[in-house]
Design brief:
Elements: H1 12-22, H2 24-27, E1 63-66, E2 72-77, E3 84-91, H3 105-115, E4 129-134, E5 139-146, H4 171-182, H5 188-205, H6 208-220, H7 235-240, H8 243-253, E6 259-265, H9 269-280, H10 285-290, H11 294-307, H12 311-314, H13 354-357, E7 362-363, E8 369-377, E9 383-391, H14 399-423, E10 430-440, E11 445-454, H15 459-476, H16 480-500, H17 506-519, H18 526-539, H19 542-557, E12 570-577, H20 588-599, H21 618-628, E13 632-634, E14 654-658, E15 663-668, E16 675-683, H22 685-691, H23 698-708, H24 717-726, E17 730-735, E18 739-747, H25 766-780, H26 785-802, H27 806-818, H28 830-835, H29 838-846, E19 855-860, H30 864-874, H31 884-888, E20 919-925, E21 931-939, H32 952-959, H33 965-972, H34 976-999, E22 1006-1010, E23 1019-1027, H35 1032-1047, H36 1054-1071, H37 1075-1082, H38 1096-1099, H39 1101-1107, H40 1110-1120, E24 1127-1134, E25 1162-1163
Parallel strand pairs: 2-6, 8-12, 15-19, 20-24
Antiparallel strand pairs: 1-2, 3-5, 3-6, 4-5, 4-25, 7-8, 9-11, 9-12, 10-11, 13-14, 14-15, 16-18, 16-19, 17-18, 21-23, 21-24, 22-23
């Protein structure tokens, strides 16, 4: 993007610099000081000024420019999804631009500007989605809309259908909403509503995971503003601000020369540019400046002057105004400015956390520097380590830059697999480990991170092993086979993206465009990127890769005796339970000693593992085909669809059965080019575990043991894992209440290739590779004791974490009460976990993986006939009686519900709701005040079946006093109940927002959902609302009132229904472009255990949604009885026993402000 030329219609950044320099004199006459981007020395992309000798190509269809008022934009035409577009307005101001008295004002201003937009409300009911978010470095407002105004909308015949600008275009409506954000009026009533929403949001996000992230960011960025400028800010300040405060911040920063508009979608560029001129051309920085006082202008000017000595000015205007102490070789670089302005907030201020101000740095005997911090808390159950080095973002604008970036990707991929293999070894010390380096525009630096989790008693062992592995990588690099393996993966990935082309979704394209531009990288098309990747890999040497490995790991290697220290600090944060009785506590000194000891640990080069090219030999496969003689049989269904032929490819789905009983569904989808998704489902899950008499939790632990293991046939776990890596297979095995599921993501091209160009040796097709893995799991999986041990450790940790999480604990307890203590619907406890043996876990899982019961759904960019041939060859040769021996070991084997049995599904129902309904109160020890409330009641499953066997559709028909023939036909459709429940959920959520948040100002977020079981009869609805402890009861009552009003005083309107229909249909059509969603929809189409689900659930979905009436939904609400026999609950925190504020002995930072996770911004 940086090198766009005139021929490509681009030149955005060149034009940006030239035009703002030309207008600098004129702009400086405005009421505000010139925007810092007007500085002649500033390069908006990065600090590289010289034209590179070998520049990367740029995307040829981007169009970008700057209006005379400084407003900049970038347009990228994109075809998928057709008929839609996205517009993101990026304001280059976030929380890092706040002054001392403004902490949290960027986020509140975003709320007021977004929620106060009357023109945004015009988008309601058009199938549009809008939102906004605030981060350290920017605030973004966005709209995702259809291109044309939907027929039937109130705007179809309105003035917005302007023939001169393109008839029926939604672009104008979207731009109206975004431009109004730039001129927000900030009504007092809106400010008060959003003040309450932000205060509620502060409570909602303050989970223990969030607090850990605050500790991490505050320590990592101790030397700059980010440590003290989180987006939500300070509670006392939020409560104090007036309209004038919001206006001051808005008028200072929401200037046309301080924003960039991105538009990506199925749009006409000329139309969009005309709309941009019309809607944004009249914005004026001078008008904003005139509303500020002299003192306010001086504040802005003083801050703007200081920004010139930060990465925001020196590298990219997209970055926050920060400096960093780089963890790189050379002298330590500090900010040496003599300015009295404390831009980096190193002085002490009111509302500061003194622990943060006093964070030490420890100089090692070697000359290196470590910045340690230890955080302990009652809610933490595991130890976690977070070790960082900060480096400059290296803009990728030349071929040489790109080659280095590919080398870096290969190194990181190899390191992660090495760590994963260690994590699945015999008795591994850590339960999670990740090593990565990411360019972070939000932080203005590249962050190299090591993150791991371990049992508290084994924290030293975990740190030593992980740090030692990084040292090994830094000293010895990769092996030749690793470079080939992960280089091939890079090329396959690039090929997949290139094949996707303009079918990449607008949101993905826009996200990548924003990230690329922000970091100063060249923005290439997928095809250009693939070509460059292929060229890079053909020229890449082992030495180049290992040089990148040395650079990535030098901060670890430098801690060893005799090594040259790096200039900046190595940042190390340890987090763990507050347990002073621990035999080996992790304190500051112990943490430093352990890391340094690990850096001095003797390491040796990595040894190669022999990785199989195929898991099934041709001889074994031929023998199985001869013995089993696989054939296709017709498919049959429970929704009235006629049986499908066994010898024809049908559209849109090919649904058949194999002669061994396995149900198979295959369909081609090129929505994700060169990719596929396979899902295997086995009815049963936790309820099957109980029905068959296995120990509680045996099936769930067994599924996790499978995930932790992986050996089968003659292959070890390490060999199988590397086979999956070579063939880009991702495997996820789960057990929920009603199914065991195995999900596989796979490429559909030849993978596992070795070499490039003329030296290429092709591997097997990805479809074949994934079917080999499925075959071996079903018929030859090896159950290992160490894998069960890892599964148990994971379950223990999850259970402890659940009961230290307010939301999780409260939801768990209310479900337990509503199911009368049925263990199938609650988490597996410690005693149950410990009691499960390897044989019990194996029998519980394998007894459900019977060929006659399982179903395989396969979706992807492949030829259906070829895929069916592979399925016949690999899955058709699994013996029909495979795994029957495990079912025979079940204590209640005689109760097994088999396909074709006379037992009528559902085989298991949710227990009858204990009546009358009741209120429950739960508490959790936590010094920070938080609360959550629930309203819940009984509901049918996704297909309308209640726990007593009745069906929602039948109940509605009986309640209708005068149904028409068409009413009966519509309600008799097998998909009716599912669509009705989806629409009700959407309508209730909208009502909750309007009533509980907007009108009553009691919460930031309230939501409504159904459990959505498919095999189990019955279920629940659950309304969840977060609120302050003082308002939790009132918020809960407001949710109940909302449900009552829907049934009585404020029934569903036609507008409510039409708006909900657009949302449901748009969501469905959007998700249909993913192979995972389609494979999930296909699961159960041929299962007897899921009555009413069949091919019609896909083919008739949109038509059924559109056919449902207001009367249908009102009758459905009456049948659901959402106003009676309700269970309500409030979970809230209480002070820990003997708690004394500020005297907890662990020296933690105090409660962190919201919105500071490394993972992303504060939305809404």
């Amino acid at each position: 993007m940086r090198q766009l030329n005139a021929e490509s219609g681009g030149g955005f950044f060149a034009k940006f610099v030239n035009e703002i320099q030309e207008k600098s004199t004129e702009s400086s006459k405005s009421s505000l000081p010139p925007h810092p981007s007007y500085s002649r020395s500033f390069q908006p992309n990065n600090s590289v000024i010289n034209i590179p000798s070998s520049p990367l190509p740029s995307h040829t269809t981007t169009v970008s420019n700057t209006l005379p008022n400084g407003f900049s934009y970038c347009i990228l035409p994109n075809a998928s999804p057709a008929g839609r577009f996205e517009a993101h307005l990026q304001v280059f101001t976030g929380s890092s631009s706040e002054l001392q008295h403004q902490q949290g004002l960027a986020h509140l201003t975003e709320h007021v500007a977004y929620m106060g937009s009357r023109k945004r409300e015009r988008l309601f009911g058009t199938g549009s989605q809008t939102n906004a978010y605030t981060d350290f470095h920017h605030t973004v407002f966005y709209a995702s809309c259809p291109v044309d105004i939907p027929s039937g909308s109130s705007y179809t015949n309105s003035v917005f259908n302007n023939p001169a600008l393109g008839k029926g275009k939604m672009v104008g409506l979207a731009f109206d909403a975004l431009s109004e954000v730039m001129e927000a009026s900030c009504e007092v009533s809106r400010l008060e509503k959003e003040r309450q929403a932000v205060l509620s949001e502060m409570t909602m996000v303050n989970t223990i995971e969030y607090r850990v992230e605050c500790q991490i960011l505050s320590t990592l960025h101790r030397e700059n503003r980010l440590a003290k400028r989180f987006p939500i800010g300070k509670e006392d300040l939020i409560k104090s601000w007036s309209r004038e405060d919001v206006i001051e911040f808005h008028r200072t920063h929401y200037r046309p020369d301080n924003v960039l508009l991105y538009v990506v979608g199925d749009v006409d560029v000329a139309d969009v540019e005309r709309y941009i001129v019309e809607k944004f051309g009249g914005l004026s920085a001078e008008k904003h400046g005139a509303e500020l006082t002299q003192e306010q202008r001086e504040h802005a000017e003083n801050f703007a002057k200081e920004v010139t000595r930060t990465v925001k000015s020196e590298q990219s205007w997209h970055y926050p105004p920060t400096v960093h102490e780089w963890s790189e070789k050379g002298d330590r670089v500090r900010d040496t400015s003599t300015s009295s302005y404390d831009l980096h907030l190193q002085n002490r201020y009111d509302m500061d956390d003194e622990t943060l101000n006093n964070l030490p740095e420890v100089e090692l005997p070697t000359g290196g520097v470590v910045r340690p911090h230890v955080f302990k808390h009652e809610l933490l159950q595991s130890f976690s380590l977070h070790l960082f080095a900060k480096r400059k973002i290296r803009p990728i604008v030349t071929v040489e830059d790109f080659v280095a970036s590919i080398a870096r990707r290969i190194v990181l991929a190899a390191m992660q697999i090495r760590l994963n293999v260690s994590a699945r070894g015999e008795s591994p010390p850590f339960t999670f480990v990740e090593f990565n380096q990411l360019d972070s525009a939000r932080e203005g630096c590249a962050v190299c991170s090591l993150d791991l989790m371990a049992e508290p008693a084994r924290w030293r062992e975990a740190v030593e092993l992980a740090v030692g592995e990084i040292k090994r990588l830094g000293l010895y690099g990769l092996t030749k086979s690793e470079v080939e393996r992960y280089g091939g993966a890079c090329l396959t990935d690039a090929a997949q993206v290139a094949a996707q082309g303009d079918r990449i979704s607008h949101s993905d394209q826009l996200g990548y465009l924003m990230e690329t531009v922000s970091c100063g990288h060249a923005f290439m098309s997928p095809e250009q990127s693939y070509i460059q990747t292929e060229k890079a890999l053909q020229s890449l040497t082992l030495e180049q890769v290992n040089e990148e490995a040395r650079i990535l790991c030098e901060h670890i290697v430098s801690l060893a005796d005799g090594e040259e220290p790096i200039g900046g600090p190595v940042v190390v944060i340890g987090c763990g339970p507050k347990d002073n009785a621990s035999p080996d506590p992790c304190d500051r000194d112990a943490l430093i000693d352990t890391v340094v000891k690990a850096a001095n640990r003797e390491v040796f080069p990595e040894e190669d593992i022999n990785v199989p090219r195929s898991l099934v030999s041709e001889e074994d496969l031929a023998k199985s085909i001869e013995e089993q003689k696989p054939e296709w049989r017709s498919g049959s269904f429970t929704d009235g669809t006629p049986d499908t032929p066994s010898d024809k490819v049908t559209t849109p789905l090919t649904l058949r059965r194999l002669s061994n009983g396995i149900r198979v569904g295959v369909t081609t989808s090129d929505a994700e080019s060169q990719r596929g998704h396979l899902r295997l489902v086995a009815p049963g899950g936790r309820v099957g575990e109980k029905l068959l008499g296995f120990a509680p939790g045996a099936a769930a632990l067994g599924a996790r043991t499978m995930q932790e293991g992986g050996a089968f046939g003659c292959w070890t776990r390490e060999q199988v894992e590397l086979f999956c890596v070579d063939h880009l297979l991702m495997v996820e095995i789960n057990c929920n209440d009603e199914f065991i599921t195995l999900d596989f993501v796979f490429p559909t091209t030849e993978v596992g290739n070795i070499g490039y160009g003329d030296d290429l040796k092709a591997g097997i097709n990805g479809c074949e590779a994934v079917l080999q893995v499925v075959r071996e799991i079903v018929r030859g999986f090896k159950w290992e004791g160490d894998a069960l041990g890892r599964a148990k450790a994971s379950f223990h940790s999850t259970y402890d974490g659940l009961y230290k999480n307010l939301e999780g604990m409260s939801a768990e307890k209310i479900v337990g009460e509503m199911t009368d203590g049925d263990q199938s619907f609650v988490s597996v406890g410690h005693e149950e976990i410990d009691a499960v043996t390897l044989d019990e876990a194996k029998n519980a899982v394998m007894s459900q993986l019977l060929p006659s019961e399982i179903e395989v759904s396969m979706v992807g960019d492949f030829d259906t006939k070829e895929a069916l041939d592979l399925v016949l060859k690999y899955l058709g040769t699994i013996p029909a009686n495979a795994n029957e021996e495990f079912l025979e070991k079940a204590p209640n084997a005689n109760l097994a519900v088999r396909s074709g049995s006379p037992n009528t599904p559902p085989a298991y129902n949710v227990p009858t709701l204990p009546l009358p309904g009741r209120h429950l109160d739960f508490s959790l020890e936590d010094p920070d005040p938080r609360a959550i409330a629930y309203v819940s009641g009984t509901a049918p499953n996704s297909w309308g079946f209640f726990s007593d066997g009745t069906n929602l559709a039948d109940s509605i028909q009986k309640r209708d006093k005068n149904p028409s023939t068409f009413d009966g036909q519509r309600r008799g459709h097998p998909l009716f109940a599912r669509c009705a429940l989806l629409l009700i959920s959407e309508i209730v959520n909208r009502r909750l927002f309007s009533n509980v948040r907007e009108k009553r100002q009691l919460t930031y977020d309230a939501n409504f959902k159904f459990t959505g079981y498919e095999q189990i009869g019955g279920g629940f609805f659950l309304c969840t609302v977060t609120a302050s402890k003082e308002k939790a009861q009132e918020a809960m009552e407001a949710c109940k009132e909302t449900l009552v009003a829907l049934v009585e005083s404020q029934p569903i309107s036609n507008d409510n229904l039409e708006s909900a229909k657009r949302v449901v249909v748009n969501r469905h059509e959007g998700e249909m472009r993913t192979t995972r969603y389609l494979s999930e929809l296909m699961s159960g189409l041929q299962l007897d255990a899921v009555p009413k689900k069949g091919p019609l659930s896909l083919t008739d979905f949109n038509a059924m949604v559109q056919a449902i009436t207001v009367k249908d939904l009102q009758l459905a609400l009456a049948a659901l009885d959402v106003t009676n026999n309700l269970y309500t609950a409030i979970g809230q925190t209480v002070l820990p026993k003997d708690y004394v504020e500020g005297k907890d002995g662990s020296a933690p930072l105090t409660r962190g402000p919201a919105g500071g996770t490394r993972g992303g911004p504060l939305t809404g």
